[in-house]
Amino acid sequence: MKSRKRGTAEPSTLLRDARRHLAAGRFDDTEELCRRVLTRSPDHPEAWMVLGKVRMGQRRWSDAEAVLARGCSLNPGFAGLHAALGQLYLELHRFGDAMGPIENCVLLDPAAGDQRATLVAVYGARVFATFSERSKVAMTICLADPALAHSLMHRAWLSLLRLDPEEVSTLELLDAPDYDSFCRLASDDRLSRWEASAFVSLGLRRFLVADLAFERGLTFARRWFLQAGASAERHLPLLCTLARYCFLTEYALVCEEDIAGLPAHPTSPVAVARLACYRPLAAHPDAATFRELSEEPAYRNLLDVTVREPVEEKAIAECVVEVAPIADAVSVLVRQQYEENPYPRWTTVGRGGAVSHDVARLARGKAILVAGCGTGREAVDAALIFPAARVDAIDLSRASLAYATRKAAELRVANVFFRQADILDVARLGRSFELIVSSGVLHHMRDPVAGLRALLGVLTPGGVLKIALYSTLARAVYAQAREWARREGFAPTLQGIRGFRAAVLARPDGDPMRQRLTASYDFYSVSQCRDLVFHVEEHSFALPELAGIFRELGLSVLRVEARGPRDLEAYRARFPADGAATDLRNWDVLERENPTMFSRMYVLWLFRSDGGARIDVEWIRRTDRM
Ligand SMILES: C[S@@+](CC[C@H](N)C(=O)[O-])C[C@H]1O[C@@H](n2cnc3c(N)ncnc32)[C@H](O)[C@@H]1O
Known about the structure:
Helix content: 55-70%
Number of strands: 7
Bound molecules: S-adenosylmethionine
Oligomer: single chain
CATH superfamily of the largest domain: Vaccinia Virus protein VP39
């Protein structure tokens, strides 16, 4: 009776059952139902998609690829098939191949927010060698979505821009060899084209562009606007985008022009925007009146970012809850640094909408601590990824916590709680945590091991700790730069950091220190540059040293985050006996051969091996996105 009913059932009914079987891992039953649908409708898109997922579940990767590729060729307009094919390539770490199908999905389906998030991550590993109009459109769609971690894609964006025939006129302008050439090239038409490009304008609003030539072009543009007189008025939106970018760098840009003539009390939107290219507006005595000067959206947006938000942060900073007064002498100095320069000044993070129900279910009731949360990017991200978990976040700096609180409110994140506390006092929170995340923090403590011990004191039995620490090998060039900056007398102030940057740029082109510093994203804003080279307290580690510390504390390594799939493949090829790739001595061998391997820090997932408690592997596996 049942089978007779099935034999005549509609494809939609069969596929609904197929999806149920698939979710339960009953691959044979799923396949049988897909075959029935395909017998009746040979190009049915969902049947091909579900069948592809069956093959993925069976880990029959090349069959899965063939099924999904066939499904896509029969149904080029069905976004789900492209998404599944992209997912397959991601599982196989074929990031280059994943880009095309995920782009197709993003282009086909405006509601595919989670695919946009994935695409941004894929662009993170990409530098374009040939121009692709399709990639430009997909990237522009991603840039227009405020809930993505855009800074990941700054390199991909610039490489595509440099190849784009439509943006040639803007690039010629920005690549001008000197200011006079810039002025000769800066026609009204050229500036209008720059202004009209959503791709360029959105990029400049979303991230810093870690490229010297590009940065220099922007300084020429800023100077041109200063000196352009009335013609600047025709390009107010472009001037505002530029001013917003200067604010984002915290005014790190080298300034060769004389700005003494800037009016102390600007009375037009152009004059306000010009001033914003050189100085923060929030503390300006007339700041409250600037808004009335124009309703131009780019101008209003500039004022939101440079006046309203900093003023809000100042008010929030006064209300941040203090767990205990900061007492440790080094912590006091570190706090001072981050009160002056909260780090990092992020604009956007990934979306929580991509979280599936089962992840949300697994996270229900879990407690997460972000220790040394800075401006809250990681904490907000965790709260978005795990909306049913509670995220506590602590830091020394009230200014950083205020930035974090404002961003959390802006993104309507209600499950994160920011408080001022030293990690050394973390027990005073009176809670314990299943997951503790502390990135780039412990190495700024007087005694990083004491910090680690304090965190272990609030880790639940079976809990997991994710830490990121500086590698001595990877930091060698920055240690040199730090020493050089000290010898040359550059102070950790705006002027000192600007002077330092100018001195780095004056070093010869092939100079290794210049190359490494200018290749770092952190070189391009004041707080990041201060963090990179001017930190008041900094330690770094070698992997064998960390292995010793972890042994002593009864910690085991659950995961070592590799820079990319290639490093992981190199590890597995070299040390096939360690499938989990967690032996720090082996990683040490590889790092010595490739000293920049951990330039993004050692990112290590640890658990207590001495307590006997079992870790919830499934929950931790799902934290992949963090
Ligand atoms: C380099 S920032 C990293 C911020 C954040 N984890 C991130 O990855 O964006 C270091 C942060 O650690 C904080 N920090 C340093 N020592 C700390 C301590 N003893 N207790 C709490 N926070 C600390 C600083 O205030 C600063 O905000």
